[in-house]
Amino acid sequence: MNILVTGGCGFLGSHVCSVFRSKGWDVVAYDNLTKYELERTGYRVDASRRHNVDFLESIGVTIAVEDIRDAATLLRHAEKADFIAHTAAQPAMTISWEHPRLDLETNVVGTFNVLEAARACRIPVASCSSIHTYGTGINDEIREDGTRYVREPAAIPESHSTLTGLLTPLHASKYAGEVYVRTYIETFGVKAATFRYTGIYGPRQFGAEDHGWAANFVIRNLTGRPIRIFGTGKQTRDILFATDAAEAFWKYAQHPVPGVYNIGGGPANAISLLESIQVIESLTGTPSTVVHEAERHGDLRYFVADIEQAQRAFGFEPVLKPREGLSQLVEWAAANLDVFTVPA
């Protein structure tokens, strides 16, 4: 069996590749290897970009350096696949403000091309979306409680209103991708799914202030850099370990029931930013310097996913708890500190 993983050399994509290789599948990681996001991190850009590529090649994954905006090339690769895991994306809200056309072309045109390839090849596809499609109106439904924001009921289902509150181009592009997935299900019968992911973290995550906050906190703690928090730090997420996130693709490939699914840690894995920093400090033995700044436009203060729909449809189930997952993230980052520090 063969899988095509768009964005396969990225954080989540590399874990999807690893899971399917462990099951004996032939895997192609289709990735343009852009360095744009990495140039904003302060890390060693070339070493960061190469890190996941080297890992994937070591486990027998084929690397196709191509772009999802190139429909013809994407189709040629899809013709050899039995399943597409679409993880390629422009994931950062801040980048969507600065480069809305890049956001549109990657998240909307790219997703359209993937769906066209799946339709032409008559294969199932699961597409990454985000909790950003719910918008920021959830901020109006919460209250403060100690070190967290809380909401009753805690878990937010797929039926919750979307595109609420203040919006950014990222909200628009993610939701537009979802609309195309639904269209290809209903018009063309494609066995397609939208995965609304939240709070993914784990090894091989080159997190920064734009995205990947858990890894960003770990890396800054280990390198002695201050952690900037935009807002109170009570922002709360149900974090999801990368391997559990990747397993959702594997389980969907076995039982491709079309639809929209929250893929998160659920209420049992909810944690605030401040709580996560406390866990990281206990794991590293090093205190963090935390700097608070004003909340950013479009930031979501709270999200905890109701994951029952994915559990019922194809058996998705998060396994790792935050402390165990953060421990693995700390171990990986500590072993690769040279990548996160630019030589003087």
Explain how this protein is built.
There is one protein chain. It is built from 11 helices and 16 strands. The protein is α/β, with parallel strands linked by helices and 344 residues long. The protein has one domain: Rossmann fold, CATH 3.40.50.720. The protein has a 7-stranded parallel beta sheet, with helices on both faces. The chain has a 3-stranded mixed beta sheet with strand order 14-11-16. Strands 6-7 form a two-stranded antiparallel sheet. It starts with a strand and ends in a 9-residue tail after the last helix. The model has no long low-confidence stretch (mean pLDDT 94).
List the topology elements:
Layout: E1 2-6, H1 11-22, E2 26-30, H2 45-58, E3 62-64, H3 71-78, E4 83-86, H4 93-98, H5 100-121, E5 125-130, E6 143-145, E7 148-150, H6 169-188, E8 192-197, E9 200-201, H7 213-223, E10 227-230, E11 236-238, E12 240-241, H8 242-254, E13 259-263, E14 270-272, H9 273-284, E15 290-293, E16 302-303, H10 308-314, H11 322-335
Parallel strand pairs: 1-2, 1-4, 2-3, 4-5, 5-8, 8-13, 9-12, 10-15, 11-16
Antiparallel strand pairs: 6-7, 11-14
Helix pairs in contact: 1-2, 1-8, 3-5, 5-6, 7-9, 7-11, 9-11
